[in-house]
């Protein structure tokens, strides 16, 4: 089934590009890790065909945004249980809250998705009771464009440029694993088979 490194790389790209487009994909919400070892699940919003850039949305006030801004690295772990494929990617990461990529992502997001960035405090802020942190007037409703204006300053994109890719296929007859690396964003992937 997976006899060549080119087939493996194509499989990884197909999984990630589908995950970004299809909310029913098992890889749509991968685990994202930061340099401090913290992990969280995030919606994969975009992946180009060459696995050159992964895009996620985040709150610019979040601890992960601050850490990535300071460290500039992230890792992503995704699994498709039906296909029995695990993907791990690592690479330079950055947070963009202004500019064309962030502006386009903001414009393409639904009102409900953008509403999250109206929270009165940064993610992880203490609260005296269970609450969303949203202003009362937008809780449980689809906010208007006017109501969403203050949210834009809290919105950012997390962009990961994978330079390492680990592909694992779990098979009853024997697992298969391949690793790929590139010297930097935009460079060609160089792969090798490894023992699972």
Automatic annotation (TrEMBL):
<dbReference type="InterPro" id="IPR012349">
    <property type="entry name" value="Split_barrel_FMN-bd"/>
</dbReference>
<protein>
    <submittedName>
        <fullName>Flavin-binding protein</fullName>
    </submittedName>
</protein>
